[in-house]
Write a structure and sequence with these properties.
alpha/beta, Uracil-DNA Glycosylase, subunit E, 8 helices, 5 strands, 42% helix
């Protein structure tokens, strides 16, 4: 099957987003569906799920975790939030807010909810054929790399892995949630810095920094 040009990929993403926006397959999930624009990019970021504010704002990583994520990229990768949102495709394991867990915090999406949303992730990857995938947080990392063990063994590394039939570079990041301390204490602090350094040096990221 021939590779689509940029215009063809964007048209396919628009159709996929239309289907995604209409999805009501998970009764426990709280809509609306959250996704970024149909950006044709060789860089694919996979988060976990939107929080309680993203649906109202209408874009992913629009609250506290997003502020932390974009601060990482601005200060250590050299890409500000505006450039990031314009140039990197932002996806998630689940696209609706899962609601609150009984013990507090956001509920982790259930396996069946993840599998339903996986069809959209697969569709995006097949269209975009990304050269770099950035899974953010344990859940996203496990969807890309499988059972990876501990964050200490994967954050701060770069690997080649198949993701929905596409061989791609993978550089994982911890979740930037304010509830997590992993990235603020050692060895997480050092490993995060190493991961961001790998991202800054990656050819696809360097193309963004060279763009006018």
């Amino acid at each position: 099957m021939p590779t689509l040009d940029k215009s063809g990929k964007r048209k396919k993403l628009v159709v996929l987003h239309r289907e995604l926006a209409a999805c009501k397959a998970c009764p426990q999930m709280i809509g609306p569906v959250v996704h970024g624009p149909p950006i044709v990019s060789a860089i694919y970021l996979l988060g976990q799920a939107p929080g309680p504010h993203e649906g109202r704002i209408g874009k992913p990583f629009a609250w506290t975790a997003g502020k932390t994520l974009f601060k990482w990229f601005d200060e250590q990768v050299g890409i500000d939030e505006a450039t990031f949102r314009e140039s990197i495709y932002m996806s998630a394991v689940a696209r609706c807010f899962p609601g609150k867990a009984k013990g507090g915090g956001d509920r982790r999406p259930a396996p069946d909810e993840i599998e339903r949303c996986e069809a959209y992730v697969r569709g995006e990857v097949e269209i975009l054929e990304p050269k770099l995938v950035i899974p953010v947080g344990s859940l996203a990392i496990s969807r890309v790399l499988g059972d990876f063990g501990k964050l200490d063994g994967v954050v701060g590394t770069q690997t080649r892995a198949p993701f929905h039939g596409v061989m791609t570079d993978v550089i994982a990041l911890p979740h930037p949630s304010g509830a997590s301390t992993w990235h603020r204490v050692e060895p997480g602090k050092t490993l995060l810095s190493k991961a961001l350094g790998l991202l800054a040096a990656h050819p696809e990221i360097r193309k963004l920094k060279r763009a006018p």
